[in-house]
Amino acid sequence: MAALSAAAGCSTLDTMVDSYTTQETLNTQYSSVLNVAYAQYGYLVDGFEELDGNIAAAKSDEAAATSSSAAVRYFNNGSWSPYYNPDNRYENFYKGIRAANFYLEDYANYEERLSFRRDTIDTNDKEAWKRDIQNAKYMYAEAHVVKAYYYFELIKRYGGVPLYKSVPEDNTFLPRASYQEVVKYAVDEIDGCLDDLAPNWSGYSDWAGRFDKGAAMALKSRILLYAASPLNTEDMSPDEIQAMWEDAAMAAHDIIASNKYSLESEYGNLFTGNTSSSPEIIMSRRSTSSNGLEKANYPIGTPGGNNDITPTGNLVDAYEYIGTPDPANPYLNRDKRFYSTIVYNGATWNNRTIDISEDGTDSYTATGASKTGYYLKKYLTDNLDLSNSQTAAHQWIHFRYGEILLNYAEAANEAWGPDDGSAVSTGMTARDALNVIRERAGLGEVDLSRYEGDNDQEKMRNAIKAERRVELAFEDHRYWDLLRWKDGDVLKESISGVRYDGSAYTRTTVESRVFSDNMYRYPIPYTEVSKSNGVVTQNPGW
User: Fold this and answer.
1) From CA 6, how far away is CA 464, in angstroms rounded?
2) What is the rounded CA–CA span in Å between residue 522 and residue 158?
3) How far, in Å, CA of 106 to CA of 276, rounded?
4) DSSP assignment letter at 71
5) Are the C-beta atoms of residues 143 and 213 closer than 8 Å to each other?
6) Alpha carbon distance 317, 106 (integer Å)
7) Pairing of strands 395-400, 375-376
8) DSSP H helix total and E strand total for the chain
9) How far is 282 from 467, CA to CA, in rounded Å?
10) What is d(CA 532, CA 347) in angstroms, rounded to the nearest whole number?
């Protein structure tokens, strides 16, 4: 048996197989069976701790890091390399794939493997045993989806990667498959197990955060959206690209047509506390009650706050006005999502008024204060008493219905244009899907005349990009969207902020950024290329 990797985690889904687990204990101890089953979940990305122990938004134009020594600055200034990448997850994702493959291979006969428990319980516990069998069956199907998840997370970073469909012998190295070959394998893994997945884990607190049917469909939607995008179709014919967009549109539409999900009535309600029962949540990871996110991102002027990352003026400018702008107060009459995402000058936050003026509590002149003049609100619980270690619930959303509507809008627009819904059962058009999102934000229907483009399809493309930027802010989409759209030039635009002299606001440049074409793909870690003796090749430009 190939060795299993050990790891530790902070939630029930992070329980891993340890070095003391043997084949005998796997055959005779039910807890060991569960450890093997849950091991595959141990490497899912926790967006709250993705980079510098925080949200990874400062990789993009959404946010700026306050500390000059933050690891994210390797991305910002272009100094990352095959020898050091702050977001190097290559090995960990393969450990997750290995764990999923091991469970699939070693537990193909899971009912027989669990029979020892059946033979040691009394009649009253037979129903519990049957539930355990059903759980093992679900986990068996989930292992296929988990593999698809890890392969997607690999290819969105590194491009094509070695494709291990089973547990390899130690020190076995395969050459890299192409991006689209990995996509096909991942989608086939999902399609082959959809009917064996749990219909819905919502409401099952002990099992929340696992892939159910809806989450698997959402993952497929995201995989196919990325696969159809310009970065990943450069060598394809127009007909092949058209087919890719149609597949992506249908994957999102299948979720919409299921009628299982709907938008939360208030956008801000999605991001604080336990929202697993929200009709919009498809899959989320709930952590134990904590205050680490608040400690990291509360303003430095709040006792206990460290102000690690702050929203940029670039992002603030992306929020539309509802009605007439007021030059004296640029924060009035904005898209409702703005007020759930950004803390701005004059806002009430942490039971006080934010003051970024030169002599104010939150001035950029204070050590460790925001350089942009803005602070993060999304995900944070207001007014936690950090001095007395007060905590709150936090929940990282892996997939939600708002993303699916935007996935559909983008793919449908690319496949059929903004106003043709004849190919889908609901008749929903790209414009329809976008307007559902905009309605919750308090905005009117999309006005394509506001966007650049030679025709309505191009204008709608830019409208969808703008909508994704604000709807999905700080949810780990912006950086990847810019890459897959081949909009890397945005990542080398200067980061802006704001200054306030007590009567007027002035834009200021906070920092410069670097981006070059090789950065569309992460470098393959030097150690992987080296130990494979060149079987695993490096990405161009690294």
Assistant:
1) 42
2) 5
3) 32
4) T
5) no
6) 53
7) unpaired
8) 18, 10
9) 20
10) 55
Question: How crowded is residue 207: how many other Cβ atoms within 10 Å of its Cβ?
Answer: 15
- Dump pLDDT digits (tens) for 166-220: 988 888 899 999 999 999 999 999 999 999 999 988 656 566 789 999 999 999 9
Query: Per residue in 22-50, pLDDT tens?
Result: 555 555 555 566 677 788 999 999 999 99
Distance CA 477, CA 402 (A): 13
Alpha-carbon span 320 to 46, nearest angstrom: 30
Distance, in Å, from the CA atom of 532 to the CA atom of 216, rounded to the nearest integer, reads 32
Question: Are the CB atoms for 174 and 163 separated by under 8 Å?
Answer: yes
**Taking each helix axis from N to C terminus, what angle separates 126-158 and 179-191, rounded to the nearest 10 degrees?**
160
Q: Taking a C-beta distance cutoff of 8 angstroms, is the pair 40, 211 a contact?
A: no
- Does the pTM exceed 0.85? yes
Query: How much of the chain is in helix, strand and coil states, percent to nearest 5?
Result: 45, 10, 50
Over the stretch 420-451, which tens digit does the pLDDT of each residue have? 999 999 999 999 999 999 999 999 999 999 99
98-140 confidence digits (pLDDT tens): 999 988 987 777 666 666 555 556 666 677 777 777 888 898 9
Q: How far apart are CA 406 and CA 472, in angstroms?
A: 10
- Over residues 380-413, the pLDDT tens digits come to 999 999 999 999 999 999 999 999 999 999 999 9
pLDDT, position 246: 98
**pLDDT at residue 339 above 90?**
yes
Rg (CA), the chain: 24
Copy the structure tokens of residue 79: 């100094």
Exposure of 516 by Cβ count < 10 A (0-12 exposed, 13-18 middle, 19+ buried)?
Answer: exposed
**19 neighbors 12 (Cβ within 8 angstroms):** no
Residue with the bigger pLDDT between 155 and 135: it is 155
- Per the CB < 8 A criterion, the answer to whether 264 and 519 are in contact is no
**DSSP character string of 254-288:** HHHHHT-----SSGGGGSSS--TTSTTEEEEEEPP
Beta bridge partner(s), residue 511 = 495
Query: Could you say which DSSP state residue 234 is in?
Result: T
